[in-house]
Automatic annotation (TrEMBL):
InterPro entries: DD_AK7, Dpy-30_motif. One of its GO terms (molecular function) is kinase activity. Residues 53-107 are annotated as: Disordered. Keywords: Kinase, Transferase. Pfam families: Dpy-30. This is Adenylate kinase 7. It comes from the Eukaryota.
Length: 175
């Protein structure tokens, strides 16, 4: 097991020359590592080590947006919200107009159907009343008309009673 490890380590070292190590790269950039032993720090939450790192690196920086950038982002969000609300309002108004048009169309169709049904009812009633009308015209109206003419000529105190007496006397079926 150790033989394989030593063989691989030797192969790694032969492939990675001294010039291409990470430490050499940082030396070329003049960035030198600082060694800090945190095992020696006895302060709570390693506060002394944190202070030492702050001295080496500097105070922590906020890489978030600047107040101007934040204001621009808020303005863009407000504009987007207003645009979306306008779009939703336009959609709502368009939907309401479509519903109103459909409602008007359905109401017109309903009104046309209602008129058709009413016309059919009138025709049916006229067709059913035609035999009754013919009967009245043939048998009742001539005698009643004559009786009404007699009532107009005589001008009695009780015209209904006079008409009834006339109809009894001049009944064509009794003759």
């Amino acid at each position: 097991m150790y033989i394989g490890m030593t063989r691989r380590l030797a192969e790694f070292r032969s492939l990675n020359e001294e010039d291409t190590t990470v430490l050499n790269y940082f030396d070329e950039k003049e960035i030198h590592p600082e060694h800090t032993n945190i095992e020696e720090d006895q302060s709570p939450e390693c506060q002394d080590t944190v202070e030492k790192i702050k001295q080496m690196v500097g105070e922590p920086r906020n890489y978030g947006p600047t107040p101007e950038e934040r204001a621009e982002m808020e303005q863009a969000a407000r504009e987007e919200r207003m645009r979306r609300e306008r779009g939703e309002k336009e959609d709502r108004e368009r939907n309401e107009a479509e519903e109103k048009a459909q409602r008007a169309k359905r109401e017109a169709e309903w009104q046309a159907q209602l008129e058709l049904v009413q016309a059919e009812e009138r025709e049916m009633l006229e067709a059913k009343s035609l035999p009754l009308r013919n009967y009245l015209m043939r048998h009742v109206l001539p005698t009643v008309t004559q009786g009404l003419i007699e009532v107009c000529k005589a001008k009695p105190d009780d015209p209904v009673d006079y008409l009834a007496e006339y109809l009894f006397k001049n009944n064509p079926q009794i003759d």
